[in-house]
Design a protein that fits this description.
Layout (H helix, E strand, L loop, with lengths): L6 E5 L3 E4 L7 H9 L4 E4 L10 H18 L5 E7 L6 H10 L3 E4 L19 H10 L3 E3 L13 H16 L5 E3 L5 H9 L8 E5 L1 H5 L23 H11 L6 E3 L8 H4 L14 H11 L6 H12 L8 E10 L4 E3 L2 E3 L7 E6 L3
Parallel strand pairs: 2-3, 3-4, 4-5, 5-6, 6-7, 7-8, 8-9
Antiparallel strand pairs: 1-10, 10-13, 11-12
């Protein structure tokens, strides 16, 4: 593949980290997502959170009802359970039997709707042992929440104080380090081997590949560029680009697209999250083009995620063309509107609609 093509054909990608919420907004999010992706890992941080197989099945049924209403038959939601201090070993076994894709570790208070998250991993040792035994992945929001730790340092501290001890204690537990934001995290995932095995992988978002923390403050506060983990310095963005475009199978696509209505972002205490579902593949293409690494895009977007999750790769194909796309200033979101990532701007790559 040329490093400067005008058309890219890919095996259809999956999104390995997605928020679709619930209720009236879900249909709009699913419509944007299913245009691009064949499958998506569905985050469980609803109110109340999706903590049991029964709740996951009910949530999946609501998703399927919206897909049916949209006339979409070629999209598969992959369900995740929210890990808590009281999750039981029996629930892990039920989850494995039910085809649940993994459990999500939210340190309590780390991000949107994470108050029910884990207060201390020592409460979860029996559960983690069972997950390791049955091959159930643990997806981690990799930040500590101690107020004395600077917000820009919370991911690096998490590696030393939580992730490395976790992996030493459970060396065969499959771990997905979600939405990397730092050089330290990229290098940790690149280099981490325990017991001669590769049991760790990571997702990287489009916003963390394309923007540094200046984007939050350019000409004033830019609430629609505010997400958690927060954007970091340029050196970290460069390290993430290097990781994503390296061809290393430990790194794969996960948008962390997180819909919040415009009014919930543009307020005195705005919500964290960037909405990239509308144009995610065009944004990733822009990032890979910036490095002259289009030949590495298909692995990152389409192959490495299903390989790590032990799922079959997709077979259908999609096409991106180098054709200017104007990103709307706002999009519908249930009864409200949402401001997508790069709203009002023009990006170079567009998806060919079937």
């Amino acid at each position: 593949m040329s490093n400067s093509p005008t058309q890219i054909e890919l095996i259809q990608p999956d999104d390995w980290h997605l928020h679709i919420r619930d209720g009236a907004v879900m249909k709009d999010v699913l419509a944007d997502t299913a245009r691009q992706f064949a499958r998506a890992i569905i985050m469980p941080n609803l109110k109340p959170p999706v903590t049991t197989v029964g709740l996951a099945k009910a949530y999946k049924a609501r998703i399927q009802a919206n897909l049916n209403a949209l006339g979409i038959s070629a999209f598969t939601p992959l369900m995740i359970l929210y890990l808590t201090d009281t999750t039981s070993v029996d629930e892990v076994r039920k989850a494995k039997d039910a085809g649940i894709a993994g459990f999500k570790l939210y340190p309590a208070g780390a991000t949107t709707n994470s108050d029910a998250g884990v207060s201390d991993l020592k409460h979860c040792h029996a559960v983690l042992e069972e997950m390791q035994s049955v091959g159930m992945p643990l997806l981690v929001h990799g930040e500590v929440t101690s107020p004395e730790i600077d917000i820009f340092d919370r991911e690096a501290v998490f590696i030393d104080s939580v992730l490395e001890p976790l992996r030493q204690h459970f060396p065969e537990l499959k771990v997905v380090f979600e939405h990397l934001t730092t050089k330290q995290a990229a290098h940790y995932v690149r280099d981490a081997i325990i017991g001669g095995k590769n049991t760790i992988a990571a997702t990287i978002t489009p916003q963390h590949l394309l923007m540094n923390r200046n984007a939050i403050f350019s000409g004033g506060i830019r609430p629609h560029n505010y997400c958690l983990p927060v954007l970091k310095r340029e050196e970290h963005r460069v390290a993430l680009l290097e990781a994503a475009t390296s061809g290393n199978p430990r790194f794969f696509l996960g948008t962390d697209s997180a819909p919040h209505a415009k009014g919930a972002k543009e307020t005195a205490c705005g919500c964290a999250g960037c909405y990239s579902a509308f144009n995610a593949l065009g944004l990733y293409a822009e990032a890979f083009e910036s490095q002259g690494k289009f030949d590495k895009l298909e692995g990152f977007a389409s192959f490495f995620g299903p390989d790590f999750y032990s799922l079959p790769r997709n077979t259908q194909k999609i096409t991106l063309v180098k054709q200017a796309q104007n990103i709307p200033a706002e999009l519908p979101l249930g009864d409200a509107t949402i401001v997508p990532l790069r709203a009002g701007e023009t990006i170079a790559w567009s998806l060919v609609e079937n």
